[in-house]
User: Fold this.
Amino acid sequence: MTKQRNYDAALRAIDRAFNGRFTAYQILKLRIRKHLKANVETKSKAVLILKDFGDPVNLDDWELGWFIAAADLAGDKHASEAGRRIRQSRKSAGPVDSGGLRPDMTGKRE
Assistant:
């Protein structure tokens, strides 16, 4: 078996590394199990995991991507579209201003 298709090993590695602590990794595991065609209720489990994310507005970009993946697996078109709208609005808003220039960019030396 090639390393690229060793889904069972991938699931074990995810379990060891994260021990179920992060909602996004639950979606990753669910996607792997779907590829394994394991006897899992992909849609119903994705619905439960999707709820664990909470309000998508409060998610960072990485979590938002997994929120969208969860919504797609759950078949929740409304949540998926909402996540995509949030992601698009963040992209069109441009970079976030964190309060000014770094000291080395102001041209002033102390």
User: Anything to note?
Assistant: The first helix runs from residue 7 to 18. The two ends are 61 Å apart (CA to CA). The helical segments are 7-18, 23-36, 42-53, 61-74, 77-93. Residues 43 and 74 are 4 Å apart (CA to CA).
